[in-house]
Amino acid sequence: MHKFHGSILRAALMASVSLSVASIASAQTADAPVATNQADEADQAIVVTGIRASLASAAKMKRDSVLIVDSITAEDVGKLPDVSIADSLARLPGVTAQRLEGRDQRLSIRGLGPDFSTTLLNGREQVTVGDNRGVEYDQYPSEFFQNVNVYKSTDASLIAAGISGTVDLRMLRPLDKNDRIIAVSLRGQMNGMNKLNPDGERYGYRASATYVDQYADDTLGLAIGFAASQTPSQNERFNAWGYPTDASGNLIIGGAKPYVQSNLLKRYGAVGTLEWQPSDNFHSTFDVLYSHFEEEQRLRGIEFPLVWGANVGVSDVTVDNGFVTGATFSNVYGVQRNDYNKRTADTISLGWNNQFSLNDALRLNVDASWSRAKRTDFLLETYSGTGYLRSGVPDSVRVDRQSNGLFKIVPTIDYTNTGIISLTDPNGWGYNGTTAVVQAGFLNRPKFIDDMRSLRMNLNGDIEGSLFSNWEIGGNYSRRKKTSAFTSFFLCPTGGTDCTVAGGTPGSAPVPSEALLGSNVSLGYLGVPAMLTLNPLYLYDNVLDAVYDNRPQSLVRDNFVKEDVFTGYAKMTMDGELGGKPLKGAFGVQVIHSRQRSVGTISSFSNGVVTVVPASGKASYTDFLPSAQISVELEPGFFVKLGAAQAMVRPRLDQERVNQEFSFDPSKIGLGSDPMNSPFSSNGGNTNLRPYQSTNIDLSVERYFRNGGYVSLSGYFKNLTDFVDPNNSIAYDFSSLLPALPVDVRNEIIANGGAIGLLKAPANNGRGTIMGVEGTASLPFKLFSESLDGFGLFASGSYTHSEVKYGSNPTDTVTLPGLSKWVASGTAYFERNGFQARVSYRYRSSFLGEVAGLSAAPTFRTAKAEGILDAQIGYEFQSGPLTGLSILLQGKNLTDQPFVTYQNDDPRQVIDYQRYGRDYYLGLTYKF
């Protein structure tokens, strides 16, 4: 099974063109110089600081680049304009962020989720602490970056570009500064909600320090930065199991799991850059970045099996338009949850770039890098209730839908009463694959290691007397290996064998007084007055037995995926005039040879027993990616930019795994020859997956004003092929497993044609299109009147339409993860004489968001539209003894916008509701 080759639709590469400015070659290896503009630079100069300086710098980057790019720039050393990198990026045109645990973490660019973009650090592809390729941006302290560029078009020298875009995080370069800089910053944080758990936190802080200096006659530069933060968050959360239909055909809630959550994220980081340029012929830069973070989550709530519970009665029903809005459920056995999660992650990134000028017209660049991320999770669940397997006191629960879509849940028993509550498996859900387990808790301990090493060389030279001004050839080799290891345990009362009922495990254990916390948690926001509040770590260490989870589906998760990628490229850069108009551009091509391999396990069938055996798989392939970009300045400050490119991005790493989980269902014996009715099935990954492919066409019209500011309008079209269908299944002949079955069972399966079952593995059988338009306006109001100097507006909006279909189901259009059809943001600001104020609002329409599902496995659900308002006000002393001191007050999520997901395109069917509250920050920065 592990040698399964998925059905792959390969479209011939279109002869397309796309290009970029010559400097983007070094955007991958050294700092990206931007092309100079032919317009009078003196006329374009804008001497401003703070917010206006940040916007002006980003506008210059956008104007001078032939690529279609948007940027954010630090207002000062160690000071990006928002609380986090993701917050800032979410204000750029066509870029949206998804909130997780109250923080902006994952980005979507032009309607495609985080799996379709790539993230670079100083031009180098980065690993991630996440489950797959998508970078979680809170692993990077924002204080470490001078600017961040989002390239929406690509060029041959932009290695590891994504289909949707490429995010390049840029650290400060010490030789770019003229003087010594020392800056320190301290900021306090308070959450608008009181802490929801007695062992949670409400207050936090962020602190940073930066040192920049130059030595040896300004030929040696050093930049060092440190950052530490402790960030709390609160979460009132409601989760519904789903909405089946009752006997009358009305939708009714199947079960609910409300809880309160208190998080504390601790992050410590350091960064250093050593830059040496002893002459015009040699320039060397060494970067290092290290980040360590720990996140602790304390979750407490009660899980209520309602209509899906065993022998649950329903009465006093109220219905509105086919939806049950209220009901009383009897014979309910609630499951109290006292859970604790901890994630520990370390990221390190090293890069060494050397640029040699071989003569006046020939340059060599050599760049080496290594990045590594290691993450360990500790996901602890503990359960309590009135007795094992519904043997205790039943509850009667009244449930009513509220105006915000949540259900008010009012129980009748006291869930804080230790006289009736014990540590147990209240509904008897525990099962180890063969027999019942008294599951009073569960522990997941996944570990991930992501390692990437790369080496790049390129040679470029000047061309005289031609429209073409520069040529470049280069190559890059990278090796990436991501290892995923999963371990899990059943937790049960002590006194038996293997946590099983047959082994004599007690059905329950009394709640020890040592585990009780001083005060009980309230779920009053949903109607539950209080619940028993326990220390889950005490229960794990002192009360519960841990037994290894050896279910077949648990044993076939470990794997590693390794990718060796060889990239060669060549391009020609243009810089001249066409018809008297300034023209820039380039033509190029990448040739990418990939070798991918996965080692893991598959479950098989032997002597009537499911077994686990090692497995491995590998594949190799070559892709050709032509590209071209062109920029014409039709009149001073008015640009038209056109690009076309063949782009690709690799599938999710978990989809490339070799693992396959075999399943045998005796209840399907004799049901017929339809593969869906076969007792045999298997589910897993596909080592032979190829990258997503896309033919991209981009057009941008940009008008820059003489005294600052600009407006732009961009359109884009992406023709997607080899799109990965994660739910692909094929008919597979499991006849080789028949000899392991008893003769009578074997003969019955053969007689009914049941040996042909379904093998589920992702395949490149999808295709489709994405098209959209985005507009941006950066308008300092000084353009309209000198009296408005200091006021300004930055606003953007985009619309995206997609139509993607899988080959296995060509009639239905797929909803792409992360795609909001409408995205808009606006920032109004005032800045003058050291005083600054800003109000920002961003909106995105509904989208398919990735959230944590059962056992923390990633799953997708539709998220409701949301609008988020942030604001800040500050003052910087510009004279007197306090010169260099600045004060800043910020408010985030002032609209108190919840994150809400629902199912079946029906907003009434709320699955997840998370309210994080508002966050307030007060900070001091001193620069000297």
From TrEMBL:
It comes from the Bacteria. The keyword Membrane applies. It is found in: Cell outer membrane. The keyword Chaperone does not apply. Residues 1-27 form the signal peptide. CDD domains: ligand_gated_channel. Keywords: Cell outer membrane, Membrane, Signal, TonB box. Residues 62-162 form the TonB-dependent receptor plug domain. Residues 426-894 form the TonB-dependent receptor-like beta-barrel domain. GO terms for cellular component: cell outer membrane. Belongs to the TonB-dependent receptor family. This is Iron complex outermembrane recepter protein. It comes from Sphingobium xenophagum.
